[in-house]
Amino acid sequence: MTPHELAQYMLNQDHFSQWMGIKLIEIREKYCLIEMPVKQEMLNGLRTVHGGVTFSLADSALAFSSNNTDEASVALHCAMNFTKAVRLGDTLTAESILISDTRKTGVYDISIKNQDGVLVASFRGTVYKINKKVTDL
To answer: What is the pTM of this model?
Structure first.
């Protein structure tokens, strides 16, 4: 399977990412760009997007980029900085770029931007390669 086919294979089984409304925009080997519309049920008590939703978008980008070569990986460590509030009606994109790749781990930088291209959060995720194929799980 191509990287895009593998990412789509994962998305087809990922009901949480489907609920979030995530769409695959661009998929290349160990890279992805995804998009998500902000829904009302994603808002917190301050009427901004709950941080967990933004984190989940980044986590999905990490999954779609780190698993799209059929080398199954799971999150080992993730850290996020929130830089701007996200509001109802915004559309977010998450771009995941591989910055370090070893036999057992990978490190990805993920930038989350709104529809105006403004950075709303940055995320760094480390994955552990579990020595299995995505398509065998």
So the answer is: 0.96
Mean pLDDT for 12-22 is 97
Q: How does the average pLDDT of the chain come out, rounded?
A: 97
Q: Look at residues 136, 135, 137 and name the one whose alpha carbon lies nearest to residue 2.
A: 135
What is residue 48's predicted lDDT score, i.e. its pLDDT? Answer: 97
- Both structure tokens of 19: 């609920």
SS (H, E, C) 52-68: HHHHHHHHHHHHHHHCC
Helix (H, G, I), strand (E, B) or coil at 9: helix
Q: Euclidean distance between the first and final Cα of the chain, in Å?
A: 15
Measured distance CA(114)–CA(137) in Å, rounded: 34
Task: For residues 62 and 39, give the distance between their C-alpha atoms in angstroms, rounded to a whole number.
Answer: 22
